[in-house]
Amino acid sequence: MSRFRMHPTGGQEQQMLLHCAHARYVWNLAVEQHAHWQRGRKSAPGFVEQCRQLTEARGDSEWLGAGNADVQQQALKDFAKAKDARFTSGFGEPTWRRKFRHEGFRVIGTDRVPEYNEDGTPRLNAKTGKQVMGRSVVVRKLNHRWAQVKVPGCGWVRFRLSAKGKGARLPSAKTFRVTFRNGQWHAAFAVVPEPGPAPGTGEVIGIDRGVRITAALSDGRTLNCPQLTVKERAQIRKHQRRAARAPKGSDCKPAEYAKAARLKAREANRRKDWCEKTSTMLAKSFDLIRFEKLNIKNMTAKAKPKPDPDRPGRHLKNGRAAKAGLNRGILAQGWGLLRQRTEHKAPGRVEDVPAPYTSLRCSDCGWIDKNSRKSQAEFVCSSCGFTCNADTNASINVAAGQGGIFRPRPTAGAGGTTPRNGSNVREPQPEQAGIPLFQEGEDVNS
């Protein structure tokens, strides 16, 4: 997907907001129709029947009929795709779309272009024998930094091109989606990027993800996701205080919240830009990329309440504030986006290594001991004395840990050793584990 910042005029912005309202209204009607279904009732209408009902509704409603039919039908088509993919997408059933939160619509290209097969031959219709004509979005380049796209009912709307990279080229797509959030308009073109070839050097990189250091590479480099500055965080707190103190129903409250949201959107844009550049660097530099396998959804879950057994209806302290701060710190690093974009750019060359014992195992001798992790950043092996940054040590284990690190047996005492490839477990000698060879009073000859 190629995403660009749009700069519509005042009249174009009002028309696009109307398109957003129509698409949201049609989507919610489809959700209501499917939510009404129960066992024993007639099945909810499909896409074709909904399009027929939409035509009747456009004739009965002047407000709905004033909109663009293609935009409204595409909202129904998006709902049908979401309904079919509810078991595979991970998002479940399609839900309601809300005003000020789900502002957007999809546009189908109106230009007709011939389609070709992978070998370059024209794609022919099996029945008629004529060449298949596909859709294409109508875009036009103005100069090296500006271009414009045709939006139904709005005419040509300008958008900003990037200075270099794929964002500097004019996008070629069949559809694009217009979104409005935090006072900014964006156009996302549905472009399927071609995966780049592997460098062919045979290098393997391990990546350990953390909060202090976003990504620690096994070659010793550390990468950090950009965050908001101290001044910007102070401005967010200032706008939030003003919004909280503003009278209910006043114009000042939503205005201050909007200012804080724009600053938070700036942080999200920086995080996305960093993930794109970092994932491109990883895909172009290494043949095999191994990530520490993390369940981010469970790691950022809310703290569960602790009922007070002595006082019914009351709860004990559960560290909710501290857990919320940790969740914000984890989500601000973009762990999942970095892993996802790297997989998109290097398909088949990204692996997940189980996380247990990666931070406790010595990457030099294989000794596993929790006492070796002195602090968040310091690792000193209790067996061989190897010293290294804790995150770098974990990334080296991730790079070498095919199938994960096996759990040492309880007879290993304080720790255990594993070989570098993690294929099996080599038990330490009893003297190394701190276990005496014979217990006091035991017969040696028995």
Pick out its properties.
4-stranded antiparallel sheet, single chain, 5-stranded mixed sheet, 446 residues
Detail the topology: elements first, then pairings.
Layout: E1 2-6, H1 10-35, H2 47-60, H3 62-65, H4 69-84, E2 104-108, E3 111-114, E4 133-136, E5 139-141, E6 146-151, E7 155-160, E8 175-181, E9 184-189, E10 204-209, E11 215-217, E12 222-223, H5 230-245, H6 252-285, E13 288-293, H7 296-299, E14 306-307, E15 315-316, H8 320-331, H9 335-345, E16 350-354, E17 367-368, E18 378-380, E19 387-389, H10 390-400, E20 416-417
Parallel strand pairs: 10-13, 13-16
Antiparallel strand pairs: 1-9, 2-8, 3-4, 5-6, 6-7, 8-9, 10-11, 11-12, 14-15, 17-20, 18-19
Helix pairs in contact: 1-4, 2-4, 5-6, 6-9
